[in-house]
Amino acid sequence: MAMKKSVPAANPDAYVASLDGWRHACVEDLRAAVRSAATLEEVVKWGHLVYLSNGPVLLIRAEEQRVLFGFWRGQRLRAIEPGLKPGGKYEMATLELREGANVDSAIARRLTREAVTLNKTLGDPTRLVK
Fold it and tell me: Does 1 have pLDDT greater than 60?
């Protein structure tokens, strides 16, 4: 199945504006929760939203059938949200949202705050060598 090549959004607002239907609503809700939880630098990187504080903290990525809410140190956050699936480099873990699924904004804020604290305590997750 060929991936549609999309032009990366110029900025986070453009990224959100490019989405439609449930994905737009889902990303908007996640983004509002994340931004209310902590002071983060919000950028479009690797074609999706990435939030930085002392290195990358989390990402929000809308795909055709799902929205991913991923944390660089997500494997340490599974006590807050057991639905976080470990995978990828670092201590990445991601919550996969499909149409009709929602993350409680209080949970999203807790995850964000905790992830920011982990980066503050442990440093940039991408600079760590196992």
Answer: no
Alpha carbon 104 to chain centroid, angstroms: 14
pLDDT > 90 fraction of the chain, expressed in percent and rounded: 83
What is 15-58 written as a DSSP string?
HHHT--HHHHHHHHHHHHHHHHHS--EEEEETTEEEEESSSEEE
Q: Can you tell me the mean pLDDT for 20-47?
A: 96
List the structure tokens of 58: 């989390």
With the C-alpha atoms ordered 115, 116, 121, 127, is the resulting torsion angle positive or negative? Answer: positive
Kindly report the length of the chain: 130
H or E stretch including 113?
helix 105-122
Residue 14 per-residue DSSP state: H
By the 8 A CB rule, do 57 and 40 touch?
yes
User: The tokens 């992830």 sit on which residue?
Assistant: 115
The CA angle 80-81-85, to the nearest 5 degrees, is 135
The residues that bridge with 92 in the sheet, in sequence order, are: none
Look up tokens 């919000």; give the residue.
Answer: 42
